[in-house]
């Protein structure tokens, strides 16, 4: 029996954008799907016009109140839908329209009027490709436990109690009063939306409408009563926070299986729902994020171990995995918390999905990630209970926010040594003046200058972030999120500014392996073998290796490449990683928290690569760099064992925000039961060596070449890009070629 009717699936796939028209997943919220009943609200243009009319009133108000009123206006006037083909309500306008009169406007004000020099520097660094930096509001997880226990009315009532207590104390400031008012206005608007859904559902006669009306009544009056209510609450919170407010929700539940499990047990025990009915709800639930089409994927995690050492994998964990596989989707994306006591059957299921190419999964190793969390001040109990945000980032549940502050291009530090800090792309001095090339008599001199350039990029990132982070709550008050966080309510401070215990900032190192390879190429070609001088190398790179193909081949074919268990290369990789994490980790930021180091590339390995000239390792201008903690494409020649040895040699848990390694395996290496055990062995070896996150691609060169030539035959072929999967046919030719190159390498 199908979990979802085919006609229902078709409607949901067109709920957020028309699948027959061009679609940009980076701009996913800018679309509308199928048409909604005009009697339920305004058009997108009418909402924009209404917000502009509201703007003069908002300008007189404190920002939390002004933003909350803008949110309430959109919620009150947005078109809604209760469709016979869907168990979850629809919002027609979902492109953060409040920004034009609140967040976007206030952001411009801060950068242009309060910190214009920071604005100039950020534009320069972003244009150069040396640092990618902007204010990040897209990595929050509410306290789902509070939402499940209290529901929307309970969250509102709890905030009102804290507000009243603060008033009674006689010490409440105007700023604190505005903080609580923002929460009140926001949650009253949410409850009004829930009531609108209920009332509209009652005008419909189809079976799903009855179910939706009953669920909305439960959520209007209190906390979720069953598993369907709980899913409905998660969906509603997500859509409001992500699409009307400005905070992207980066996990569905504090472990989706853990959050939903009490409802699951209760519903089965009481006969409220059968297991098959629950699986059906899960199918409709997960299809929402598949249809939304976020390029980065919508994450949730499964499993984990509690403080008593008991693994949290349960019957619902298996159901979620089975439903996901049956749907054949690659969004949402799933993180699996892994420890040695993870059930073998469950791990087999995960690995089989990955091997078959229909599982968008990353394996997050609890021992290493716990150590990472404790290194920035969390207790053991907090570390055991850590959340996974976004792709694979760590976080203290209900008491940590992290903004991804800056993506540092490690290759620029190498190039700045060669150019004495002059940025060839920007045409101006952006790095440090570390001296003329004639002064570098030894590799030690060059390496010392490289570390100075890397330090300069780290310090510049922190200086820019310190300048604007003090305004995060001013620009984008987080009333909806803050309402779920007890610590924020207790101190009457914005949850994303300084209202949680851990108000942290993350700095990412991009192109790590390629950076190490470039250093090794300088050492070998310039100093050890004296094939070329630094001055000559500088000119060769400026000309993108033109006329020096033999030298480039020597650079590309060097044995000193990260990922091959080469002792010298690995020693430098460990040293540079340690230098970076020492400089970054636990340095205070301006929100009362600290900086955290990250070995995770997102799409920056492509975007920054496009802005980076040729480099000493043989890479040509504009080519992508290495991603995450993985080797440069085509440079890992000694197999997966050597790769794991190199990767775990750099103390991955020192990257306290996240670190990930990508492994590509040939199908012949993972066939049958022995193949699954081989994959599990790689995972457990990585876990034992203090690894953090690891992900797999399984395919061969011939299949990818055929897919490139005959895309119509491979419409469902997935590849893992970074912390998410994409369809092969959605990759550019250049990106496809990079995967083909690495696939060729693993079978040579």
Automatic annotation (TrEMBL):
Signal peptide: none
PFL domain sequence ranges: 1-620
Gene Ontology cellular component list: cytosol
Keyword S-adenosyl-L-methionine carried by entry: no
UniProt keyword terms in alphabetical order: Lyase, Organic radical
Segments forming domain Glycine radical: 627-748
InterPro entries membership: Gly_radical, GRE, PFL_dom
Annotated positions of the Glycine radical modification: 723
GO molecular function, one term: lyase activity
SUPFAM superfamilies, per the entry: PFL-like glycyl radical enzymes (SSF51998)
Name of this protein: Formate C-acetyltransferase
Organism: Candidatus Eisenbergiella merdipullorum
């Amino acid at each position: 029996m199908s979990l979802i009717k085919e006609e229902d699936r078709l409607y949901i796939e067109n709920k957020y954008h028309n699948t027959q028209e061009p679609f940009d997943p980076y701009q996913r919220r800018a679309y509308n799907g199928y048409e909604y009943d005009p009697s339920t609200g305004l058009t997108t243009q009418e909402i924009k016009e209404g917000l502009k009319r509201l703007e003069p009133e908002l300008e007189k108000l404190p920002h939390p109140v002004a933003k909350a009123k803008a949110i309430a206006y959109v919620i009150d006037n947005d078109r809604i839908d209760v469709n016979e083909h869907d168990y979850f309500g629809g919002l027609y306008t979902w492109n953060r329209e409040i920004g034009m009169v609140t967040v976007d406007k206030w952001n411009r004000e801060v950068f242009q009027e309060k910190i214009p020099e920071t604005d100039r520097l950020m534009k320069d660094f972003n244009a150069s490709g040396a640092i990618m930096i902007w204010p990040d509001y897209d990595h929050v997880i509410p306290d789902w436990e509070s939402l499940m226990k209290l529901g929307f009315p309970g969250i509102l009532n709890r905030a009102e109690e804290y507000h009243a207590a603060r008033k009674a104390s006689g010490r409440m400031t105007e700023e604190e009063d505005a903080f609580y008012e923002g929460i009140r206005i926001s949650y009253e608007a949410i409850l009004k939306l829930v009531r609108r859904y209920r009332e509209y559902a009652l005008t419909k006669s189809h079976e799903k409408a009855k179910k939706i009306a009953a669920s909305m009544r439960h959520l209007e009056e209190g906390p979720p009563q069953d598993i369907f209510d709980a899913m409905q609450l998660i969906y509603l919170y997500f859509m409001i926070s992500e699409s009307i407010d400005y905070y992207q929700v980066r996990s569905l539940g504090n472990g989706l299986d853990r959050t939903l499990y009490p409802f699951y047990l209760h519903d089965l025990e009481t006969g409220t729902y059968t297991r098959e009915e629950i699986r059906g709800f899960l199918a409709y639930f997960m299809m929402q994020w598949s249809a939304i089409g976020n390029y980065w994927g919508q994450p949730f995690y499964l499993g984990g171990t509690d403080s008593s050492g008991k693994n949290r994998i349960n019957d619902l964990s298996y159901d979620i995995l089975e439903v996901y596989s049956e749907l054949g989707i690659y969004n949402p994306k799933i993180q699996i918390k892994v420890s040695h006591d993870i059930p073998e059957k469950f791990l087999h299921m995960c690995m089989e999905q990955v091997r078959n190419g229909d599982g968008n999964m990353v394996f997050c190793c609890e021992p290493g990630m716990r150590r990472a969390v404790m290194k920035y001040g969390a207790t053991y109990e907090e570390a055991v209970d850590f959340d996974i945000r976004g792709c694979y980032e760590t976080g203290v549940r209900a008491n940590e926010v992290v903004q991804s502050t800056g993506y540092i291009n490690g290759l620029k530090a190498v190039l700045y040594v060669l150019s004495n800090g002059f940025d060839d792309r920007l045409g101006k001095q952006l790095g440090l003046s570390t001296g003329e090339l004639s002064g570098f008599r030894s590799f030690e001199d060059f390496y010392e200058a490289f570390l100075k350039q890397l330090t300069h990029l780290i310090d510049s990132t922190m200086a820019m972030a310190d300048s604007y982070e003090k305004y995060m709550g001013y620009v984008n008050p987080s009333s909806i999120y803050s309402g779920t966080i007890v610590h924020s309510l207790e101190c009457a401070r914005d949850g994303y500014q300084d209202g949680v215990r851990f108000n942290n900032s993350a700095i990412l190192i991009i192109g790590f392996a390629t950076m190490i390879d470039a250093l090794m190429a300088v050492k070998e070609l310039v100093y050890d073998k004296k094939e070329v001088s630094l001055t000559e190398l500088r000119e060769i790179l400026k000309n993108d290796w033109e006329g020096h193909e033999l030298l480039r081949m020597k650079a590309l074919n060097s044995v000193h490449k990260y990922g091959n268990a080469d002792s010298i290369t690995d020693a430098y990789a460990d040293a540079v990683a340690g230098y970076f994490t020492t400089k970054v980790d636990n340095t205070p930021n301006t929100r009362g928290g600290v900086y955290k180091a990250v070995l995770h590339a997102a799409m920056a390995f492509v975007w920054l690569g496009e802005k980076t000239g040729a480099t000493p390792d043989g890479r040509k201008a504009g080519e992508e760099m290495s991603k995450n903690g993985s080797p440069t494409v085509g440079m890992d020649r000694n197999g997966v064992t050597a790769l794991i040895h190199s990767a775990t040699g750099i103390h991955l848990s020192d990257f306290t925000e996240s670190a990930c390694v990508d492994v590509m395996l040939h199908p012949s290496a993972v066939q049958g039961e022995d193949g699954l055990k081989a994959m599990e062995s790689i995972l457990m070896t990585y876990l034992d060596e203090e690894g953090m996150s690891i992900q797999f691609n399984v395919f061969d060169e011939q299949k990818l070449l055929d897919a490139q030539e005959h895309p119509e035959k491979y419409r469902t072929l997935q590849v893992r890009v970074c912390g998410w999967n994409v369809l092969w046919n959605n990759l550019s030719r250049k990106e496809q070629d990079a995967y083909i190159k690495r696939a060729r390498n693993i079978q040579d």
